Fold:
Amino acid sequence: MTQAQKQRLLRHLQQLISMSTTPNNPDVLTDCLAYIQQFALEHGWHCKSIDGQSLIVSAKPGKKFTYMLQAHLDVVPGDSAQFRVVKQQGRFYGRGTYDMKFAAACYLELMATLNKNTSDVCFAFTTDEETSGHGSAKLVQLGYSADVVVLPDGGQDWQMERAAKGGWAAELTIHGTPAHGSRPWEGKNPVETLLKLLPKIVKLNQNKAGKTTVVVSMLHAGEASNQVPATARATLDCRFVDLKAYAKLRKKVESLASKAQATLETAFFVEPLINDLHGQYHAQFAESVSAITKLSKLTGAQSLGASDARFYAAAGMPVILCRPPGGGAHSDSEWISQKGFFQFYQVLERFLTQQIK
Structure:
């Protein structure tokens, strides 16, 4: 890789990180898509906007490809200082450096270097992975497909994701009887009932990477400081390794909720994901990783979070989830390895060009 190419990749990353593409900034998300579209058009690629919220970039119009390289552009909120790339001790810090604008930066450089006389590759960009993943689901519903999807939103330290935990978000609601805060005996405070229920649910959290986890992620009650509230709500974020563990957890939560006379509603449910690392494309990608990084021990990794891979996998597409060293996703110290970032581009280039003839 030349120094000029490294500089271009860094400029791509800096430009993307500078855009505060958080869910509450729809205009910035639109601008980011427009930036990518303009770059793609300047380099001779065809672009198709999906509802103004996703973008497909390909050599020719169509919906079926050999390779789909996917990335989400949305990031979780952060303070203004995080929306710039800071280089420190061999790392690039910044919101989205790891989750997952490093991949989008590599895709931009591929648009500039790949032979466009092929219809085998498409790039897919979405803007709602952090909140719903509907963008990827919509692409699948519209018939976009590939023999393999590369989605660098899982795996770690070059290890491809062999499995990902499933997720269940549920909302507990307890109804009470509102009253004036000075006359609590005239009402029934649902907060008190919720505070008795939550410790029992928290005990279901096994608090280990390979086990079922339960997190109370949000609480809400009351509309005024001098009122016994009418309702109290808690949101649960639950993760599990297989459907048997999910069924066991759900049965226990439903039982506890019923005893407390709380309603239980599912906000979303994601099945666990299993990847075949011995499949054709996973094996070819592993070969590219080994050739570029000189790593020989690629055993795979268990992911603790969900990704948009679930939509493609459900449609029968193998999904490669692999990324270079990095960490701190959703934190104030999110980072990606400088060396790993440049190597990832080389891995993608080798993987694609060895297959495309």
